[in-house]
Amino acid sequence: MIPEEVADWVKAIGCAVTICDTDGRILYMNDRARLTYIKHGNLIGHNLFACHNERSQAIIHRLLENGGTNTYTVTKNGIQKLIFQTAWRRDGQVAGLAEISIPLPADMPHYDRDKQ
């Protein structure tokens, strides 16, 4: 059994976490995700396809159909972020997508562990 304080780690982590089901309906947004989209109101229960362009929708559909991940960086409001989207599973079947948006510091170090 996972202790409650560990199970609830995602609520206040320093990055935005959004979870949707296989229909694209938003099931969960942590505090950071809700703050990111506060001007749009409460998005829980809304369909995320409505706020994505055709190219993004195709990627989301592919991830929902086949599983897998999609990772990229983006700059928004002057902040560079790493976006990690991945299928989540229930009983071995794709149950939806999780998106983690991590703000990246401008002076973030990079370590090449292959050369150490």
Average pLDDT reading: 91
| Helix content bin | 10-25%
**Gyration radius, to the nearest Å?**
16 Å
Main sheet record: 5 strands, antiparallel
Report how far apart the termini are: 38 Å
β-sheet strand percentage: 35-45%
Folded structure, characterized:
The protein is an alpha+beta fold. The protein has 3 helices and 5 strands; from the N terminus they run αββααβββ. β1 (16-21) and β2 form a beta hairpin. It is globular and about 45 Å long.
In short:
This protein is an alpha+beta fold and 116 residues long. 20% of the residues lie in helices and 35% in strands. It has a five-stranded antiparallel β-sheet with strand order 2-1-5-4-3.
Sum up the structure in keywords.
116 residues, 20% helix, 3 helices, alpha+beta, globular, five-stranded antiparallel beta sheet
Sequence-ordered SSE layout with sheet pairings:
Blueprint: H1 4-7, E1 16-21, E2 26-29, H2 31-36, H3 54-66, E3 69-76, E4 79-90, E5 93-103
Antiparallel strand pairs: 1-2, 1-5, 3-4, 4-5
